[in-house]
């Protein structure tokens, strides 16, 4: 059988129908953010893009994304010029909603194309698992929740990332892959987190000879270097010329934010905060000092700067060093074994390290881990074993993004649908590993997945029924701590798999 | 859920029902050496073709169709932000209000001008239950008088949830069981049956009317489905119970009544089975009695408490709404008077005899005829008689066939044919009533050869046309986007025009029936598409503002007439009534 069914195109059609039905669904402030960017880029000269601040949602993506918004705004002009006025805050005529929602769906075609290429470039024996993995990304509940309900353009951006990852598969297109990634960085700088893996891979596989690290391919290095400089020059050059780089950087990297986002992303710091909360009650028995000011911030919930009552404070410097450290470890292996599979593994681990240890990580950033991981999750059963808790935890952690009653059944049922469908399918498709598996880890993951059911029930129904509007932070804290355990667990599991295969 | 069991065998043992039939399924392109799905829905279930247990596939199907239902429900409902009367949504909400806030005896009498209750008692009980539950969440939703026209977004979520839950408690289980019984009976493998089940549950018209426009038709349709399902299992008494429930929920189920009656009578006569006949009669009567019992008990209790059913009359005697000329013979002080009064009022409310032949524009024979001959110049009584005669003439053939050949697998076709007859010729038809003939016609997808090209083409045609005739209704409340999305999605899944014309490619020796089907369908699809273009871009002439709608119903009526004929013809062929003469045609059809 040559082709797998259902094809990517067929799934895209049905998914599109579903996404069109979601047009009137809840949308977050990100909708207004992007409308404001449409207005800013369309009605102001480029020099003022990064200075405009009529709306509180100022432009804080790199220049290429601003250019992307400018292109979209050319079509928006025809649909409803009202949305292109900077002072038209919170403007949401139905034309604006339809237009913005439709652009998300249409630009996602990049993802469809990239996934198609991913399946076609897979070795024949691996084509069916690749096909399943591609569908799992296309139908990902993460993209559905974040892009098509909450509102963002991740489908488009991750499409470019996957395209770049797939192009790295062949020697002939490695250069293109690197340049595409550079362009991606100029679209959204969150992908900087993955840049170390790209750097090592391109250095070793493209700029250095396959036999010896001392054999430098100067031609390749030159092509790559000038290409990257050209791309960054195109993006940032004009702003450098106008002397706006400090302003631009202050928009892109707002360091004034706290360690944890308003709602804790499920990372190490969520666990750290959770332990701190528990210690508030335990510390007096242990004779530890409790910072009374911090307790107030605890009871106020999760908004604003987090401060710790018992445990030591965390500085941006600490998080940076930890992230770098855990990124470098897998990169050493990548340097000595620059194959595509290791490269994807390293990209995934860079995503993990930055998500788990980063400063002010947003829960949406989990896609940075899930999506590259999906590409190799079906390599064998050990990979799948590490992927499973991530798939559950990563998606459950996105639930608090949607809190309106009407979208509640969609996020829950869609995620369960996706988990049942793809975990069942993956289970059938992943080949057995030739190495022994870690028995305990499998049991852990089964137990972990089972716990998600009472947790979701508690957070979505039981808590409100028993406590009403009080203690609102409890379900959020449980969700993020639970998800953090899953993400950390899958990270440890994947580290083992990565270094032993 | 999903256990990590790394060492389990890669392929499960094949189920007996999933055996070699799969490759010979008519959905596959028969002669080519590579087996591949010929339409997208088959492709979506392709990985489940072998070795996947039904218990894995069924929950996934139910979740997927649920997602589409709920997502469609995010759109507006009929009457949203449309005072003063709002629409069906307000009617249903209002019934929850009056049933929970008023004594039982007043349910059918209360302020009839504002969406007075005009559905049978089961709807009233259903509203009462939902109103009670909703009242626990927020009492203001169903507060007497003050809640009229309420547009609380959380109330909308609650109302949508009640439709979805009613659907999942009645229609969907009934359909799952029906499909399973029919496919077992006819030797259809479970994989093919799953495709049919998905197609039936994704039917755009039901989703659009119930989950978007807002009504609870699936409860009634589900009861009828259960009626057919029980008949398939040979449980005649249960059939009667379910059918009484369907009638008790929505009087529209009467469209099916002649066929059900003919079938049950036939089943008792060929061969003769008098105990069964008696059993059926007793169970039916008892079901009706139980159905009416709460209303009666409530009326008696209210009379005992001194609560008058019609407080507006201050205890004065009022003639009964029906059989008015005989009402003076009844002693209105007798203990049983409240019962007669209630029954008369229920019947009067449920069957609006006094209204005209048709109210709104609907794609049936009379409305279409009205374009040519102005029917208003004839007296209502003549029209009523004409309608009665035409309906009787149209339902007689299918009822006769199912009476003479009371075979259970013929039931869907017989129901579809009679329902088409009623829809086309009867009195006071609403455009949403097209759901009634569509339901049994769509379930034949689950029958033997149900997914072959010819049946798929006809079932698809009827559904697309039916949904298309409801477009003016949906357009009025700005539901174009869900209309296009759900209809095109269904057409795409089943490989129907306008998404694909592969359905009409004849393989092997072409047949005349094949050509006729292609010609008729192409013409209608062309007209429908053209109509959409005209409707979207051209304003109707000033002196004829309804011209586009009139054209829509004209095309619809002719198309439905053809659907009636196709159902009748299929029924006759399948029944084998004229076996010798139709063998060839039958072969041609099922190819």
TrEMBL record, chain A:
Keywords: Endoplasmic reticulum, Glycosyltransferase, Membrane, Transferase, Transmembrane, Transmembrane helix
Originating organism: Hyphodiscus hymeniophilus
Pathway field: Protein modification; protein glycosylation
Presence of the UniProt keyword Mitochondrion in the record: no
Residues spanning the membrane: 98-118, 152-168, 175-201, 221-242, 318-336, 383-402, 408-426, 446-467, 473-499
Known function: Dolichyl pyrophosphate Glc1Man9GlcNAc2 alpha-1,3-glucosyltransferase that operates in the biosynthetic pathway of dolichol-linked oligosaccharides, the glycan precursors employed in protein asparagine (N)-glycosylation. The assembly of dolichol-linked oligosaccharides begins on the cytosolic side of the endoplasmic reticulum membrane and finishes in its lumen. The sequential addition of sugars to dolichol pyrophosphate produces dolichol-linked oligosaccharides containing fourteen sugars, including two GlcNAcs, nine mannoses and three glucoses.
Record-stated family: Belongs to the ALG6/ALG8 glucosyltransferase family.
Membrane topology per record: Multi-pass membrane protein
Keyword Transmembrane belongs to the record: yes
Top enzyme category: transferase
Record-given protein name: Alpha-1,3-glucosyltransferase
InterPro entries, per database record: Glyco_trans_ALG6/ALG8
Subcellular location field: Endoplasmic reticulum membrane
UniProtKB/TrEMBL annotation, chain B:
Enzyme type, top EC level: transferase
Region of interest: Disordered: 1-31
Transmembrane segments: 57-77, 157-179, 191-213, 219-246, 253-272, 278-301, 410-427, 457-474, 481-503, 515-534, 546-572
Principal cellular location given in the protein's record: endoplasmic reticulum
Alphabetized UniProt keyword annotations: Endoplasmic reticulum, Glycosyltransferase, Membrane, Transferase, Transmembrane, Transmembrane helix
Bilayer disposition of the protein: Multi-pass membrane protein
Signal peptide feature range: none
Recorded GO CC terms: endoplasmic reticulum membrane
One term of GO molecular function: dolichyl pyrophosphate Man9GlcNAc2 alpha-1,3-glucosyltransferase activity
EC assignment: 2.4.1.-
Pfam families: Alg6_Alg8
Pathway info: Protein modification; protein glycosylation
Subcellular location per the Swiss-Prot or TrEMBL entry: Endoplasmic reticulum membrane
InterPro entries associated with the record: Glyco_trans_ALG6/ALG8
Keyword Glycosyltransferase on entry: yes
Residue ranges, compositional bias (Low complexity): 16-31
PANTHER family per the UniProt record, alphabetical: DOLICHYL GLYCOSYLTRANSFERASE, DOLICHYL PYROPHOSPHATE MAN9GLCNAC2 ALPHA-1,3-GLUCOSYLTRANSFERASE
Family: Belongs to the ALG6/ALG8 glucosyltransferase family.
Protein's name in the database: Alpha-1,3-glucosyltransferase
């Amino acid at each position: 059988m040559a082709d797998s069914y259902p094809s990517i195109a067929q799934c895209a059609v049905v998914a599109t129908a579903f996404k069109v039905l979601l047009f009137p669904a809840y949308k977050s402030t990100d909708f207004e953010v992007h409308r404001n960017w449409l207005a800013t880029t369309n009605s102001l000269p480029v020099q003022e893009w990064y200075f405009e601040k009529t709306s509180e949602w100022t432009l804080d993506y790199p220049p290429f994304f601003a250019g992307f918004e400018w292109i979209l705004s050319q079509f928006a002009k025809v649909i409803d010029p009202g949305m292109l006025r900077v002072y038209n805050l919170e403007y949401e005529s139905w034309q604006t909603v339809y237009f913005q929602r439709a652009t998300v769906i249409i630009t996602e075609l990049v993802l469809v194309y990239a996934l198609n290429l991913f399946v076609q470039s897979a070795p024949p024996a691996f084509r069916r698992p690749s096909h399943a993995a591609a569908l799992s990304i296309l139908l990902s509940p993460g993209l559905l929740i974040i892009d098509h309900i909450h509102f963002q353009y991740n489908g488009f951006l991750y499409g470019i990332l996957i395209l770049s990852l797939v192009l790295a598969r062949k020697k002939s297109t490695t250069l293109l892959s690197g340049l595409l990634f550079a362009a991606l960085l100029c679209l959204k700088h969150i992908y900087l987190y993955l840049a170390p893996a790209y750097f090592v891979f391109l250095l070793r596989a493209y700029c250095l000879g396959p036999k010896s690290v001392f054999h430098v391919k100067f031609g390749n290095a030159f092509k790559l270097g000038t290409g990257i400089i050209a791309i960054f020059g195109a993006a940032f050059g004009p702003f450098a010329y106008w002397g706006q780089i400090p302003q631009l950087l202050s928009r892109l990297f707002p360091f004034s934010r706290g360690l944890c986002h308003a709602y804790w992303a499920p990372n190490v710091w969520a666990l750290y905060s959770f332990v701190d909360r528990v210690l508030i009650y335990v510390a007096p028995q242990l004779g530890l000092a409790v910072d009374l000011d911090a307790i107030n911030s605890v009871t106020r919930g999760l908004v604003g700067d987090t401060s710790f009552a018992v445990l030591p404070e965390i500085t941006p410097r600490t998080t940076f060093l930890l992230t770098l450290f855990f990124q470098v470890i897998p990169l050493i292996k990548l340097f000595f074994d620059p194959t595509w599979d290791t490269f994807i593994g390293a990209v995934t681990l860079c995503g993990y390290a930055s998500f788990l240890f980063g400063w002010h990580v947003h829960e949406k950033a989990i896609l940075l881990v899930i999506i590259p991981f999906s590409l190799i999750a079906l390599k064998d059963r050990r990979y799948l074993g590490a992927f499973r808790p991530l798939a559950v935890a990563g998606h459950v952690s996105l639930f608090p993004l949607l809190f309106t009653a009407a979208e509640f059944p969609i996020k829950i049922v869609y995620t369960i649908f996706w988990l049942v469908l793809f975990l069942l399918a993956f289970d059938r498709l992943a080949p057995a590993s030739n190495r022994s598996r870690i028995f305990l880890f499998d049991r852990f993951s089964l137990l972990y997945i089972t716990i998600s059911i009472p947790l979701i029930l508690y957070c979505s129904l039981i808590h409100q029924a028993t406590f009403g509007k009080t203690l609102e932070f409890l379900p959020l804290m449980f969700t993020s701590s639970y998800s953090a355990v899953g993400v950390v667990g899958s990270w440890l599991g994947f580290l083992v798999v990565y270094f032993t295969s | 859920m999903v256990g990590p069991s790394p060492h389990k065998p890669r392929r499960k043992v094949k189920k007996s029902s999933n055996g070699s039939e799969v490759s010979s399924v008519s959905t596959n392109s028969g002669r080519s050496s590579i087996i591949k799905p010929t339409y997208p829905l088959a492709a979506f279930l392709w990985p489940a073709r072998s070795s996947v247990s039904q218990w894995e596939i069924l929950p996934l199907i139910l979740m997927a169709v649920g997602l589409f239902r709920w997502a469609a429900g995010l759109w507006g409902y009929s009457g949203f932000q449309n005072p003063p009367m709002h629409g069906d949504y307000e009617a249903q909400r209002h019934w929850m209000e009056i049933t929970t806030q008023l004594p039982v005896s007043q349910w059918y009498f209360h302020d009839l001008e504002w969406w007075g209750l005009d559905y049978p008692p089961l709807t009233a009980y259903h509203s009462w239950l939902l109103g009670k539950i909703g009242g626990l969440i927020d009492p203001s939703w169903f507060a007497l008088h003050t809640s009229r026209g309420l547009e609380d977004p959380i109330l909308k979520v609650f109302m949508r949830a009640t439709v979805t839950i009613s659907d999942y408690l009645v229609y969907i289980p009934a359909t799952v069981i029906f499909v399973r019984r029919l496919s077992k009976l006819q030797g259809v493998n479970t994989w093919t049956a799953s495709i049919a089940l998905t197609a039936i549950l994704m039917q755009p018209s039901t989703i659009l009317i119930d989950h978007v426009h807002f009504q609870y038709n699936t409860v009634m349709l589900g009861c009828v489905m259960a009626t057919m399902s029980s008949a398939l299992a040979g449980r005649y008494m249960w059939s009667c119970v379910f059918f009484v429930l369907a009638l008790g929920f929505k009087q529209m189920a009467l469209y099916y009544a002649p066929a059900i009656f003919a079938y049950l009578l036939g089943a008792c006569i060929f061969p003769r089975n008098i105990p069964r006949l008696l059993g059926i009669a007793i169970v039916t009567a008892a079901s009706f009695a139980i159905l009416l019992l709460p209303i009666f008990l409530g009326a008696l209790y209210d009379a005992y408490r001194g609560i008058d059913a019609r407080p507006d009359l201050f205890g004065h005697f009022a003639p009964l709404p029906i059989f008015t000329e005989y009402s003076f013979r009844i002693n209105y002080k007798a203990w049983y008077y409240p019962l007669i009064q209630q029954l008369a009022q229920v019947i009067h409310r449920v069957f609006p005899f006094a209204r005209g032949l048709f109210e709104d524009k609907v794609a049936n024979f009379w409305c279409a005829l009205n374009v040519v001959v102005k029917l208003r110049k004839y007296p209502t009584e003549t029209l009523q008689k004409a309608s009665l005669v035409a309906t009787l003439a149209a339902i007689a053939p299918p009822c006769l066939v199912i009476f003479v050949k009371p075979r259970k697998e013929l039931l869907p076709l017989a129901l579809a044919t009679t329902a088409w007859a009623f829809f086309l010729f009867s009195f006071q038809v609403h455009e949403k009533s097209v759901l009634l003939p569509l339901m049994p016609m769509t379930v034949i997808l689950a029958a033997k050869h149900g997914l072959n090209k010819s049946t798929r083409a006809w079932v698809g045609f009827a559904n697309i046309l039916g949904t298309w005739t409801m477009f003016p209704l949906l357009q009025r409340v700005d539901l174009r986007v869900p209309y296009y999305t759900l209809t095109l999605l269904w057409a795409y899944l089943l490989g129907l025009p306008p998404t694909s014309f592969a359905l009409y490619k004849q393989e092997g020796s072409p047949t005349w029936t094949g050509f006729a089907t292609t010609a008729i369908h192409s013409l209608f699809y062309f007209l429908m598409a053209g109509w959409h273009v005209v409707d979207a871009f051209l304003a109707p002439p000033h002196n004829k503002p309804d011209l586009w709608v009139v054209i829509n119903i004209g095309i619809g009526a002719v198309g439905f007439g053809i659907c009636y004929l196709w159902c009748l013809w299929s029924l006759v062929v399948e029944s084998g009534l004229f076996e010798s003469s139709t063998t060839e045609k039958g072969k041609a059809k099922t190819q």
